[in-house]
Amino acid sequence: MPSIKDRFRGFLPVVVDVETGGFNNQTDALLEIAAVIIEMDEYGNFVKGESINAYVEPFEGANIDPKSLEITGIDLNHPLRMALSENAALGKIFTPIRKAIKETGCTRAVLVGHNAHFDLGFVHAAAERAGIKRNPFHPFSCFDTVTLSALAYGQTVLARAIKEAGIEWQSDQAHSALYDTEKTAELFCAIYNKANRKGMY
Questions:
Q1: Confidence (pLDDT) at 201
Q2: Which of 114, 117, 138, 175 is catalytic?
Q3: Is 1 exposed, middle or buried (0-12, 13-18, 19+ CB in 10 A)?
Q4: Is 124 a catalytic residue?
């Protein structure tokens, strides 16, 4: 039976999306984070595994650009937001990832994202601020679905790549970290499985 630990030399792919208060991971707030753990079925295809998300309380002194809130639709004062500190939010995200790494025999997680270095930078910056020592993600390696989508479908915009892949996309749900992460996970699996069917590896 194929094993995911043998596919990327011990790396477990985990799709991540963050919503933020800007573009600078050192000064701008992390506001929302979601992750989808990728699994491998008995045929060697990738499928979506567990989804986890958390709303994040901006760190003290964090910058939040109002334009970012307009794009994401995040209401920081919404009574049901139930935001967690960066430490608690990352703990919620990291715990099942560490468990999956152990259960699959992998050595660490590799972040998969659309413009993945953006998400990876915010994850690492928040983990450093929170003093988290056991960050499961590789410090610099990542898999970018922008590049993969350009190769597979000739598209780089997430919504267009998803539609080209034949995946349902609801524009009114976009810019929710959980929705974007789950759709990016579907896209990543579709690209990988397409290559798998063509015998590219």
A1: 57
A2: 175
A3: exposed
A4: no
